[in-house]
Amino acid sequence: MSLLELIAAADERGLAAGAAACLERCLPQPAPGDEPDPLRPVWAGCADPRLWPARLAEARAALDTLADPGEPVRRVRELLAAAPADRAGEELRAWADACSVLALEVHRGHDALRSAAPDPVARCRAGDLSGAGPLLAGEAARQTLILEMLAAIDDTAPAGAGLRQVLDLSTEGQRVLRAAVARRARVRG
Length: 189
Prior knowledge:
Helix 4 (about 50-65) packs antiparallel against helix 5 (about 70-80). With about 190 residues, the chain is mostly helical. It contains 9 helices and no strands. The chain starts with a helix and ends with a helix.
């Protein structure tokens, strides 16, 4: 299934966790003194919808303390502010979709190889990774894997089932992007 199809078919927990993972991968290396995992509270809200509003508020407050005023942090703040207070319905789906797009755009922005094809982000979301740079293609594949992992968990599983694996996969993706950004900075410097 394409990323678009997976988002359209995802349940509420899958949408919330997929979106949180996307936003987390957009954040740069924390500055000294910054909260190392400002979005960590959102993960509890992914497991328990009753905790969602309070955990969103905690994550918003943690993000507001970050020293980095860069574009990705600003956009993550905007999306977190736009997150629906109720972890349900089409608002959640639209929000998760926007988080997916942001993560793909951030990765594309750091790709050394830029695709000449029109709208590579849309093409990746539709399942066509041809011509996408390695960071963009990797992010599209990561989002797909996360949504497939969450979709494979049956309804009788505990609420937090699979979230640890999703968090681990997301953290690895975050490391990949941070390493690529650092490598490009060294090359430029």
